């Protein structure tokens, strides 16, 4: 597991950076890469192999990337250790995400750091700011990591806390099964967003037209009747059936877990379970 840490608030011309360490950190080649167009004002900070960040962390190789940041294997020139440095986008849309993760990492480094299993928890080692060419500016109206992105965000509809509940459902499925609930791909004929929406429909059923047509991007994906424009009939494979047939989860467990998730994946954000309601669900309390 990659250990890493983050930054606090963004300020003009500044990127968020966080540092982390793991004894068995091992970079792996990844054929996928971030969109080079996002190396722009408010986007990714340009990092090159051999760069030295904060006069201390020398970049050795790239470990990976996400919607919010890139992650680099670096040598701590002061301590001689290998660390993971996560460089957050500088746009103000990413500031809160950085603050939230930083708060979690500080909490993990509190009293729990003395627990015998603390080495399995991400530990915050350092944080600093980097002034760069892609400084502080609102960058993108999209939120959420791709696989966890809620339907309303995909459609360009208004969103709020229920969008995070959708993400929690995706993450819970991944923690239990080891696989992403949705893994959208781009092809020559359809966009990644269309494939994402199609996967949602295959799992959860047809999207009510009132919802499908509610966003500013809806016309890019749906006909006036609420059908996908460039994707034919889809085969429904319910969440319960996926858990039983693909992951061989026992029927009773699959029933409780699927009910727990489906309450967080309602197409209507206002009908989704709240965090408090999720905590009271029998799948967690029994």
From TrEMBL:
GO cellular component: cytoplasm; nucleus
EC number per UniProt: 2.7.11.1
Record protein name field: non-specific serine/threonine protein kinase
Stored SMART domains: S_TKc
Keyword Zinc-finger appears in the UniProt entry: no
MF-aspect GO terms: ATP binding; protein serine/threonine kinase activity
GO process annotations (BP): intracellular signal transduction; regulation of mRNA processing; spliceosomal complex assembly
Classification via Pfam families: Pkinase
Binding site for ATP: 86
Highest taxon in the source lineage: Eukaryota
Keyword ATP-binding among record annotations: yes
